[in-house]
Amino acid sequence: MARAGLTAERVTEAAAELADEVGFDNITISALARRFGVKDASLYSHVKNVQDLRTRVAVLAARDFAERITAAIAGRAGKDALTAFAHAYRTFAMEHPGRYAATQMEISPEVLARSPGHLSLIQAPPAMLRAYGLAEPDLTDAVRLLRSTFHGYVVLEASAAFRHPRQVRTSWERGLYALHVALENWPPSAPRLEDRPREGV
After folding, report:
1. Residue 194 forms part of a structural domain
2. Which of 5, 58, 142, 153 keeps 20 to 30 A from 185, CA to CA?
């Protein structure tokens, strides 16, 4: 019998907290059961297995992440929106590393369709970038540039990979300005680099 007071929501919230402490990939049914002081079987009344648990955490994390992002960019456009988006992104990833990792988890189309947080995270970047006058396919290229830049930055920062004495935040802010300049001066369609003639050939 399930322990009184335990619900799928409580279990998911606790798993998200555990993910922030020990890493998303390290959450298990057993570790969570110890957190509640119950046997593993008590949790199986609320989640099917560890994959189901991690999927639930991913949905919860996407909701939290999306709320942070949408609140930051509300009423903003252009450089202000870009900067607010980036700071909200970096702050969430640094404050909630387990939840952030969960948002990178691949989920099924069925789960995606029922996850408002994931849908909001998909829709927010292109909506923000339209103020720069970008249209497809440039819009998708720009979204990919931002995502790869932000994700790469927070992953490297979290692992203490930036060893140079220059302040990381200073480099971050300079990088954001560079992105703003790039977005304002987005290049027209051009031949792929590998298709261009090589010098000296």
Report:
1. no
2. 153
